[in-house]
Amino acid sequence: xxxxxxxxxxxxxxxxxxxxxxxxxxxxxxxxxxxxxxxxxxxxxxxxxxxxxxxxxxxxxxxxxxxxxxxxxxxxxxxxxxxxxxxxxxxxxxxxxxxxxxxxxxxxxxxxxxxxxxxxxxxxxxxxxxxxxxxxxxxxxxxxxxxxxxxxxxxxxxxxxxx
Length: 163
What we know:
Layout: H1 3-8, H2 11-20, H3 32-46, H4 51-76, H5 86-96, H6 103-119, H7 124-127, H8 132-156
Helix pairs in contact: 2-4, 3-5, 3-6, 4-5, 4-8, 5-6, 5-8, 6-8
């Protein structure tokens, strides 16, 4: 856990800030969303290829992220602070949900999600306006759905090199 996380958090804030920042990953001073997405890849790799386990994990991360993201917004005094990367973790889980990929597919999923997260196609750009932590999580969930569909299309169209 990062020393900045320990310094910035009172005992009451330690758990929600640890969750929101993916155990301090969000405190990396450059490209925290990219590193948060990488943390999501690691979590995905630790999950079994079970629709039940993956969907339950996605729902749990969304719920915990909505709560901890709202706490983090109040703590940092701004909407969707850069330090909050639990939304990127969830985004990678959704992007990879039940997609049979190998190493190249992981890279493709990572790039597809980062692009969709940055561009925020409709309605993702509207969902970020939802209040509190739900807004933090919802826009990335929608961007990840687009990335999941794009990855599935690539796999279906014969880009087996990413599988």
